[in-house]
TrEMBL record:
Signal peptide: none
GO MF terms, alphabetically ordered: oxidoreductase activity
Entries under InterPro entries matching the protein: ADH-like_N (IPR013154), ER (IPR020843), GroES-like_sf (IPR011032), NAD(P)-bd_dom_sf (IPR036291), Zinc-ADH_QOR/CCCR (IPR051603)
Entries under Gene3D superfamilies matching the protein: Medium-chain alcohol dehydrogenases, catalytic domain (3.90.180.10), NAD(P)-binding Rossmann-like Domain (3.40.50.720)
Name of the featured protein: NADPH:quinone reductase
Keywords: NADP
Organism lineage: Bacteria, Bacillati, Actinomycetota, Actinomycetes, Mycobacteriales
One Pfam family cited in the UniProt record for this chain: ADH_zinc_N_2
PANTHER family the UniProt entry points to: QUINONE OXIDOREDUCTASE
CDD domains given in the database record: MDR_like_2 (cd05289)
Length: 309
């Protein structure tokens, strides 16, 4: 089968198409005929050898978001051949989703909602579970609370807006102006241009803030009310922890993982019409390196999808 194989850490050019053996399922596992995957910011850090290096011995097949149809079922796996499924396999070990076939623990899969295409389903697992974890596990966002999302226009951010809206929060989204009307349509009550210094400085009184903009945590922190919560998804510098403590703010560093109950919660929101991934661009498997290049530029709206087959 065709797959993307990485033999060394580095830039997008390290992502090479290769022929590899097709996987077979063990007990409780499913082989998925993959039709779509995605690229996430974490994928680029791993590609460069800057994250989870201890879990990614070379060579490896990258990619964690997977969507497609069940091709083979191992003993005890509760799926049927031909069934549409999606999920996030094996995290933090290589997910091996950038391939024509991917073997997945059945516990890491869910049935794909009829309302989603395979491309949309693939856009949901990692980004969606990151956002769900932030607002329903790390912090429990409640109706009427003021929530700030910095970096709201990206893969995690646009899903976080919808998840916070479904919880009944009042949401302020920080993003570039080209994304403002779109974010309002997703449930943001107020939108702020991150280049507008006056508007950024005026932000205050938030119960919870979710910072998804690297290098931009200071204005996010300063917008949180004393006793409130700041959530980041990468390791907090000592300075950030100290500043939060001095301001009487709870700082939480969250890191995504796969939980079947979180995937089920996302499915419930999709089926209730409250959550839908947005796809800004699609690339075939052979152009996975170009998908990484676009993500590296940092301006994607929603998710970038890689189609397979």
């Amino acid at each position: 089968m065709k797959a993307i194989v990485q033999h060394e850490f580095g830039g997008p050019e390290t992502l090479q198409v290769a022929e590899v053996d097709s996987p077979t399922p063990g007990a409780g596992e499913v082989v998925v005929k993959v039709t779509a995957s995605t690229v996430n910011p974490l994928d680029t850090l791993i590609r460069e050898g800057k994250a989870l290096k201890e879990f990614t011995p070379l060579p490896f097949i990258p990619g964690w978001d997977v969507a497609g149809t069940v091709a083979e079922v191992g003993e005890g796996a509760p799926f049927e051949p031909g069934q549409r499924v999606f999920g996030m396999p094996r995290f933090p070990k290589p997910g091996k989703a950038l391939a024509e076939y991917c073997v997945v623990d059945a516990r890491n899969l869910a049935a794909t909602p009829d309302s989603l295409s395979d491309a949309e389903a693939a856009a949901l697992p990692m980004a969606g579970m990151t956002a769900w974890q932030a607002f329903h596990d790390t912090v429990e966002v409640k109706e009427g609370e003021k929530v700030l999302i910095n970096g709201a226009g990206g893969g995690v951010g646009h899903l976080a807006v919808q998840i916070a809206a479904a919880a009944g929060a009042t949401i302020t989204a920080i993003a570039s102006p080209s994304k403002h009307e779109w974010l309002r349509s997703l449930g943001a009550h107020e939108v702020v241009d991150y280049n507008d210094e006056a508007a950024m400085a005026a932000l205050e009184g938030f119960t919870t803030a979710f910072n998804l903009a690297p290098g931009s945590w200071v204005p996010t922190l300063e917008a949180v009310a004393p006793g409130g919560h700041l959530i980041t998804i990468s390791g907090g510098a000592d300075e950030l922890n100290e500043r939060a403590e001095e301001a009487g703010i709870h700082h939480h560093v969250t890191s995504v993982n796969t939980r079947d109950e979180w995937l089920a919660a996302l499915v419930d929101l999709v089926e209730g019409g409250k959550l839908r991934p947005h796809i800004s661009a699609t690339y075939p498997l052979e152009r996975a390196a170009d998908a990484h290049r676009e993500l590296d530029e940092g301006h994607a709206q929603g998710k970038i999808v890689i189609t397979i087959g």
